[in-house]
C-alpha cells in the first residue's frame, strides 16, 4: 500500500513521457515526475519518495523533503489566505491547506504557525490544523522524570515556554528555568524536570538536579580553556552576569564550580576562577 503523507520505498516500473512510474508489491502505482527523478537509475531500482496529492487530488511522488510528515507537527509559513482557508508552505510544490475550521485563531498571510498534518478520512486528503491540543494527550505518559526528550516550542507566555514533547505530550519550561534564547518553532533537546499529579510535565533545557552537575562542570572547564584559563566569575557574581556569559543559573554554576574545586581542577579567587 502506498501511504499518503509518508515516505515510501517503491520500485521503478517504467519510464514514460510524464516521468517514472513507481510501484509497490501490491501493484499500486504512482508517478514521479521527470523533474524529481535521479540522475542515474535503472528499471527495477528502488527509490524512497514522499507521496502526497497534486493539484488535481491525485497521488504524486517527489524526492523533495517536506517540513513535516503525516501525524507530525511543523512550524510553517502562511503563504496565502483565501475564501476557503489558509495555504502553508511545507516544502512541496503544492501547498498545504488549512481550513478555517482547523485554525486555532484566524491565520494571516506572512505569519508562522505550529501545524499538525493529518489525513481526513472523509475526503482522503492531507489537511493541516493549528488546533494542536486535540492531537496531544497527557493521560498516558510515555516519559519519565529526568528523561531526555525532543521538544517543539509552540509559544511563549508570561509563565514560560509551552512545548510539544516527542510529538505526543504537552509540557512547559518555566521562565526561571530558561537561560538561553528560544523561540516558537525551535526543535531542541530538553529534560523532564518533574511530572505533577495531574500529569502536567515541567521541562528544563539542562539536566535537572544532581544529573546536571557533571555536564555543567565539563562545560565550565571548556570555557576556562577557551578563555586562557581564567573567567571573571565566582560564587558572588551577579546571576544575570552568569546567565549572559554561560547560559546557566547561578545555582547550577555554583554546583559546577564546587565539583571542579573538589576535583582540584580550579582555584577560586576573589575576582574569578582559574584553571589549575
From TrEMBL:
InterPro entries from the UniProt entry: CvfB_fam, CvfB_S1_st, CvfB_WH, NA-bd_OB-fold, WH-like_DNA-bd_sf
Transmembrane segments: none
Record-linked Pfam families: S1_2 (PF13509), WHD_CvfB (PF17783)
Location of the Conserved virulence factor B first S1 domain: 4-63
Superkingdom of source: Bacteria
Every Conserved virulence factor B-like winged helix domain range: 220-275
Family under the similarity heading: Belongs to the CvfB family.
Name of protein: S1 motif domain-containing protein
Organism whose genome encodes this protein: Aequorivita viscosa
Amino acid at each position: 500500500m502506498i501511504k499518503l503523507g509518508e515516505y515510501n520505498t517503491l520500485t521503478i516500473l517504467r519510464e514514460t513521457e510524464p516521468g517514472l512510474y513507481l510501484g509497490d508489491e501490491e501493484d499500486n502505482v504512482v508517478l514521479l515526475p521527470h523533474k524529481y527523478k535521479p540522475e542515474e537509475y535503472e528499471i527495477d531500482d528502488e527509490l524512497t519518495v514522499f507521496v502526497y496529492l497534486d493539484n488535481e487530488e491525485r497521488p504524486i511522488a517527489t524526492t523533495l523533503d517536506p517540513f513535516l510528515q503525516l501525524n507530525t507537527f511543523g512550524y510553517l509559513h502562511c503563504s496565502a489566505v483565501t475564501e476557503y482557508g489558509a495555504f502553508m508552505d511545507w516544502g512541496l510544490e503544492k501547498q498545504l491547506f488549512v481550513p478555517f475550521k482547523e485554525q486555532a485563531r484566524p491565520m494571516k498571510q506572512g505569519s508562522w504557525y505550529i501545524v499538525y498534518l493529518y489525513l481526513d478520512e472523509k475526503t482522503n486528503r492531507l489537511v493541516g490544523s493549528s488546533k494542536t491540543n486535540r492531537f496531544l494527550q497527557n493521560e498516558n505518559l510515555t516519559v519519565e522524570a529526568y528523561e531526555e526528550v525532543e521538544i517543539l516550542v509552540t509559544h511563549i507566555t508570561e509563565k514560560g515556554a509551552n512545548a510539544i514533547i516527542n510529538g505526543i505530550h504537552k509540557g512547559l519550561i518555566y521562565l526561571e528555568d530558561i537561560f538561553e534564547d528560544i523561540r516558537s518553532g525551535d526543535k531542541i533537546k530538553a529534560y523532564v524536570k518533574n511530572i505533577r499529579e495531574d500529569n502536567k510535565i515541567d521541562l528544563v533545557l539542562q539536566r535537572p538536579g544532581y544529573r546536571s552537575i557533571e555536564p555543567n562542570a565539563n562545560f565550565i572547564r571548556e570555557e576556562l580553556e577557551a578563555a586562557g584559563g581564567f573567567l571573571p566569575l565566582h560564587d558572588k557574581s551577579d546571576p544575570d552576569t552568569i546567565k549572559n556569559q554561560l547560559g546557566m543559573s547561578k545555582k547550577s554554576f555554583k554546583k559546577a564550580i564546587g565539583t571542579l574545586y573538589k576535583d582540584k581542577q580550579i582555584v577560586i579567587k576573589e575576582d574569578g576562577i582559574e584553571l589549575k
